[in-house]
Amino acid sequence: MDNVPRRYSRAGPFPNSIRSRRSLQFCVVAALVFIGAGVLFLMFTGNKDAQATRARITHAVEGLLPVIREGPVPAVLPGGDDLAIQVLDPRGRTVGASPRLLGHPPMAAFPATGHPVHAEQVLCPPAGLRGCMIVDSYKVDRPDGVWLLHVAVPQSPWYGSTTVLAFVAGASLLVTAAVAAGTFRLVNRDMTAIDAIREELAEINAADLDRRVPLAAPNQEEISLLAVTVNDTLDRLEQAYNQLRRFTADASHDLRSPLTAVRTRLEDALAYPQDTDWPEMTAAVLAGVDRLQAIVTDLLTLARLDARAPLTPERTDLTRLVDTELDRRPRRVAVVKDLQPDVVADCDPLRIARLLINLVDNAERHAASRVTVSVRADESAVTLEVLDDGAGIAAEDREVVFTRFARLDAARNRDAGGTGLGLAIAREIAEAHGGTLTIRDSDRGARFVLRLPR
């Protein structure tokens, strides 16, 4: 397959790009917030204008009522473009009016001759005027009858004034655009750091596993943690790859040696059949095949352990298991048992038996005359120890011996019977049980200590 990035179809109303999607989402949220705040502000402004209009009407009425009651009423009353006034006598004739209503009929036909002293209506428009206006009508009692006072002012919209509306709309647009631009800039900065990580990862292959992704800026903590985690993963991947490469090289070498020996024996036998001791040659070939089989078996065991094959744990009497395995076949050196009775643990008995055999086989190959196997238990763990009386293992090599196909230089000649995988298998089995397998200090020889949780 090619390396072209796969494009996924959009599953919603927002674009695929995180930059665009986040910017658009924040823009929508900011717009909704500012619209709500703007509406509340406009309603507040409109209410303030309505209160101001009511105050003007009240002021005009308070100034005219004494004039109407005491008379005479001037023919021309004060007013302007935003204030219209009319005074009607009991017969409905216009006695006084503001300049805009001079010569015009009554602007309103209410209140009727009923009980209310004050009435208010919105007329669009009142007679002689333009536009929608709030008209207040007051009844004024005089000796000659009921006079009417009409006062009209322009109706204020709910948002106050057009100037305020334009200001709020413009400010909302500007702030929303600023939020969108700021969000895009911040998201783009973060995505640039992520793109750098992605591009570096895309270029890393088996030939340059030493490359690492760049770290983000100090103020991008989460992305820096991502980069550190990726680099840690690459470190482990490089270590695992190098270990696999060494393992493959060592396995090839260890498999090639017995194969070469077998092939050489067979070729010599075929070339000189009359001079070949066939029973001896067959025994040598079988020994080589046995070694190949042992290596392949250990490799398959390690493969199953690496694949985390499930254990089959059961309640196991570890003392009896160790005693049975030690008595199963004769040993090349004396094996001393130091077994505490009734040491019980939950474990996979087949794998623990394999671990024990590997440790004892290793101890036999290096022991001078004796191997000691002990089993103990305390409140938290059970302990299995295998101790030989050989030359021992230097402190700096105590972890090396657990690597696959590892053999110490001083022990190569005496360790010819091993596959180089026994101790690695033993440690894998211990860790699969949640335990540990280590080498501890001893007066003489190597002391392997297995601890399993109870």
Question: Mind explaining what this structure looks like?
Answer:
The chain is an alpha+beta fold and 454 residues long. Among the domains are: 84 residues, Beta-Lactamase, CATH 3.30.450; 84 residues, Signal transduction histidine kinase, dimerisation/phosphotransfer (DHp) domain (Helix Hairpins); 144 residues, Histidine kinase-like ATPase, C-terminal domain (Heat Shock Protein 90). It is 47% helix and 17% strand. The chain has seven helices and twelve strands. The chain has a five-stranded antiparallel sheet with strand order 2-1-5-4-3, covered by helices on one side. The protein has a five-stranded mixed sheet with strand order 7-9-10-12-11. It has a two-stranded antiparallel sheet with strand order 6-8. Strand 11 and strand 12 form a beta hairpin. Helix 3 packs antiparallel against helix 4. The longest helix has 53 residues. It is rod-shaped, with a radius of gyration of 50 Å. 21% of the residues are buried.
Provide a quick synopsis of the model.
By secondary structure, this protein is an alpha+beta fold. It is built from seven helices and twelve strands. The protein has helices at 18-70, 162-203, 221-271, 278-306, 318-328, 349-366, 422-432, and strands at 84-88, 94-97, 118-123, 133-142, 145-154, 314-317, 334-339, 344-347, 370-377, 381-388, 436-440, 447-453.
